[in-house]
Structure formats: C-alpha cells, structure tokens
Amino acid sequence: MSERDDEELRERFAALRREHTIAAPVFRDTMAAARSRPRPPRPPRPRRGRRLGFAAGAALLLVALVLILTVRNRHRTTVDLASVRVHAPTDFLLQLPGADLLRTMPRLGRVSFDRRTL
Predict the structure, then answer these.
(1) Could you give the C-alpha distances from 87 to 62, 90, 93, in angstroms and in order?
(2) How far is 38 from 36, CA to CA, in rounded Å?
(3) Is residue 102 a contact partner of residue 96, using CB atoms and an 8 Å limit?
(4) What is the pTM of this model?
C-alpha cells in the first residue's frame, strides 16, 4: 500500500465513524427509556418447593455427618512413620565424603587429629 491509499482508508473510516455517531442514540436517552418502561409482574414463587428442598438438604447433611463420625472411629489404623525407611535409587548421591566427621561431636580443649585423615 502507498501513502495515498493509507490516507484514503483513514478518510473512509473517519466518515464511517461520523455516520455511526450521528445515527446512534444518546446513552442517557436509552437508559431513561428503559427505566420508564413498566416492569411485568413476577409470577409467585412456590414456597412449598423451597421448604421441601431445604428440609431434604438438612436431612442429607445430618445423615452425612452421622456417617462420617461413625465410620471414622471404626476403621482407624495407626502408622508408625518413625519405623518406615525409604531407600530411593539416588540415596548414594547424598552420601558425603567424611560424613562420619559430621555426625560426631567435637570435644573442646582436646586436639584429636587422626593421622590417617591428614
């Protein structure tokens, strides 16, 4: 496209915008017309169905609560996590050279050099 074509497109779009602006109603007038319309009467809501649904929901909630409380205490198993050992295939990567030194407590006031480690 050339500059002339771009300018022509701009003028055409500007003309379209002007036409739409002139043809479109003012927003305030549209809202005022919508507010002035009478609302159709609402049909009465059935109250019996609402009460029945509420009662059924409450009964279902009560039954679920009783079942949860009774079943939870019946099948309780204990798991001693301290006795569980898990050995992953990559455990060897966590072993450090000299890890035995990290597990011992140094004694202050005494020099304890091992000539094998020097």
Answers:
(1) 45, 8, 12
(2) 6
(3) yes
(4) 0.28
* Matching residue, tokens 């609302």: 39
Q: Which long-range contacts (CB under 8 A, 24 or more apart) does 112-116 make?
A: none
Report the alpha-carbon angle 40-44-45, nearest 5. 125
- Strand (E) positions, the chain? none
Determine the residue type at 56.
A
Interval 22-72: pLDDT, tens: 888 888 988 999 899 888 888 887 777 888 889 999 999 999 998 888 776
Q: Which residue matches tokens 């304890």?
A: 112
CA dist., res. 62 & res. 58, Å (int): 6
Cα–Cα distances (Å) from 101 to 4, 54, 96, 118, in that order, read 84, 69, 10, 13
Three-class SS state of 116? coil
Q: Which of 105, 90, 99, 92 is nearest to 117 (CA)?
A: 99
- List the structure tokens of 20: 């739409």
